[in-house]
Specification:
The structure is a single chain. By secondary structure, this protein is an alpha/beta fold. Strand 6 and strand 7 form a beta hairpin. The relative contact order is 0.18.
């Protein structure tokens, strides 16, 4: 049954992350915790389906203030599939060198910030632009992606570097490079991708570790609460407090 085959493939990736990436996750979490404790940001960026782990972090029930999503609409919103902001345009745009530099111009950065990037293959130009610009601004760059599988792949960027070459810390998502993991009879292409699940797994392992580090340091976290639990009479107040804290931080107060 192909449903079980996909489930086993997903479990295998999750197990591999646990077996091989805990040290790198802890290193990444330490850097992120330093940024958040300093009142600064962990900026998050990706293209295509690599924006899904960004949406998981904040705003999200169980997430907390300190993660700043940078989502460039033409690089993520391709649910029209064809027509305006369709798949063809997205595939073209993520390979345009210089686009990431222009994206970075729209935000304020500080050397105490961290740039957290998601890229499955590590070879496309927008992500590499963002990583290089972050390094120019003296930020730490953390990259999550299929690093081992992508090894030896040629970058599309004129720098000659992949995003993994630029990173200070790499966490391998352990997803296969092809992503789709299940063979289908009478078809050339596989079905059942696992990279999104791998990214989200690694994200919450990391974010929980950041929270653990900050709590151990005595730092108060502004957590996004569930406002759907019967009997929790202060959830809306805690939500407002978290969002007010986010507004103050984004405004530089």
């Amino acid at each position: 049954m192909l449903a079980i085959e996909w489930l086993n493939n997903a479990r295998e990736v999750m197990n591999k992350i646990e077996e091989t990436q805990l040290d790198n996750i802890k290193k990444a979490a330490e850097v992120m915790a330093d940024s958040i404790e300093a009142g600064r940001w962990v900026h998050t960026f990706g293209c295509g389906h690599a924006t899904l782990p960004i949406e998981e972090m904040y705003p999200r029930i169980g997430g907390f203030v300190g993660f700043h999503p940078i989502v460039e609409l033409p690089l993520t919103f391709f649910t029209n599939i064809t027509g305006q902001m369709g798949v063809h345009q997205f595939v073209f745009l993520e390979r345009v060198e210089g686009y990431g530099i222009e994206i970075m111009k729209g935000h304020n950065f500080d050397p105490r910030d961290t740039m957290w990037l998601f890229s499955h293959s590590g070879i496309n130009n927008v992500n590499i632009d963002v990583a290089l610009e972050a390094k120019k601004k003296n930020m730490k760059v953390i990259v999550f992606g299929s690093a081992a599988e992508a090894k030896g792949k040629k970058t599309r960027h004129s720098s000659g570097k992949t995003i993994f070459d630029i990173a200070d810390i790499v966490v391998d998502s352990c997803a296969p490079l092809q992503d789709a993991s299940v063979k289908l009879k009478n078809h050339q292409d596989n079905i059942g991708p696992v990279s999104t699940m791998a990214f989200v797994t690694a994200v919450w392992m990391t974010v929980c570790t950041v929270a653990e580090i900050l709590a151990d340091r005595g730092v108060k976290l502004h957590i996004h609460p569930s406002h759907n639990v019967p009997g929790d009479t202060t959830a809306r107040e805690r939500l407002t407090e978290a969002l007010d804290t986010y507004k103050e931080r984004i405004a530089g107060v």
